[in-house]
Amino acid sequence: MMNDMKAAVVPVAQPYLPPLAEFMPYLEQIWLNRWVTNGGPFHRQLEDALCEHLGVEHLCLFSNGTIALITALQALNITGEVITTPYSFVATTHAIHWNGAKPVFVDIDPVSMNLDPSRIEAAITPQTRAILPVHVYGNPCEVEKIEKIADTYGLHVIYDAAHAFGVRRNGRSILSFGDMSVLSFHGTKIFHTFEGGAIICRDAEMKRRIDRLKNFGIEDEVTVVAPGLNGKMNEVQAAFGLLQLRHVERAQEARAGVDRRYREALGEIRGLRLLEIDAINTRNFAYFPILVTPEFPLSRDALYEELRASQIAVRKYFYPLISEFVDYRGLPSANRDNLPVACTIADQVLCLPIFSMLEAQVQERIVDIIVALAGAATLRA
After folding, report:
1. Per-residue exposure over 202-211, b if at least 16 CB sit within 10 Å of its own CB, e if not
2. Residues 6 or more apart from 185 whose CB is under 8 A from it?
């Protein structure tokens, strides 16, 4: 076993934190404003700044991405069945559950790892009301095919775009497709507000509806029009988001360098498959997944254990599938025979560390461990 216990633990992701001195003026202004939540000045500034940065018109900030997902479904009155992917973070399906709807799992594409459009129509029933795809790892879904199916059957489309901050497809923001897109601003994301999220919607009237729903459904001081949640982003989060936005392009460039070095070092290793790059999409370098196929000398789990023993905190992201968790595995669509590609990828995937502050020499150590293990295992075989 290759083990370097003296080395510091290297996480898969680590939030970028600007110098504290840059954040202090924002905190001082919040103190002077005496306005800490409920749509304060920094909240309004961040909504405007994000609309401009992302190239969208209508954006609603939230305290976290999960409440944003729940509210997006509620805003469209989604009940019945929702077609979705089993290959995502569990919040995707939890949001369906919290709206009293039934998730219907459909298999994924073996290359993009996103919901496979060719399998959607077979899952549509008279109870189907919506499709909830995920831009996995920030890699855009085949939105044109998905939305053609949705238009044919009169279905809503809500994209879980938690990983897709700043991504574009054919020059258009990926967030502008569908009825809505939902972002996460969790601390591990490229752009974050400690915790946070947002819904991107099509028009001003829907934005007003969403803004009411995230504030308990309150219309005015004496009127409540819907059973909304408390999903408001506070002023500290919003202020930090404004500061983060000043650094996000630099952070993305640093991640691009990490991605490039991995591809150069690992791209030719037999038995490792990297996420393919589609020329029509811009990338944000949110994650760096590899697939450990049977041609590699070690199994995925064995490679995981070796890297963990060397203080590299890789993750099997996403394993297990959502469809295998106790609350969902009893669904007919959760049967593994229905999801062969997703099952295979979940059993092979390993996400390597990628974040803006990852030092080149640390990344070199990660690569050296993988290359050495591949060579040593081949010799042992």
Report:
1. eeeebbebbb
2. 64, 65, 191, 192, 193, 194, 195, 196, 197, 198, 237, 241
Q: How many structural domains does the chain have?
A: 2
Tokens of 333: 């669509």
Say if residue 206 is in the same domain as residue 294. Answer: no
For 99-144, the pLDDT digits (tens) are 999 999 999 999 999 999 999 999 999 999 999 999 999 999 999 9
102, 148, 189, 207: the active-site residue: 189
189 is catalytic: yes
CB of 228 within 8 A of CB of 216? yes
For residue 70, the enclosing domain spans: 20-243
Q: Please tell me whether residues 152 and 268 are part of one structural domain.
A: no
Is 267 inside a domain boundary? yes
Number of C-beta neighbours around residue 149 at 10 A: 17
The model's pTM: 0.95
Q: Is the peptide bond before 11 cis (omega within 30 degrees of 0)?
A: no
Category of 217 on φ-ψ map: left (φ > 0), alpha (ψ -120 to 50) or beta: left
| Residues written for the chain | 381
C-alpha dihedral (323, 91, 182, 72), degrees to nearest 10: 90
Let me know: does 310 contact 369? Beta carbons within 8 Å: yes
Of 172, 112, 176, nearest to 138 by C-alpha is 112
Residue type, 283: R
Residue 1 lies inside a defined structural domain of this protein: no
pLDDT digits (tens, 9 = 90+) for 327-379: 999 999 999 999 999 999 999 999 999 999 999 999 999 999 999 999 865 54
DSSP 303-364: HHHHHHHTTEE-B-TT-S-GGGSTTTTTSGGG-GGG-HHHHHHHHHEEEEP--TT--HHHHH
The DSSP annotation for 203-233 comes to SHHHHHHHHHHTBTTEEETTEE-S---B-PP
Closest CA to 170 of 149, 198, 143, 133: 143
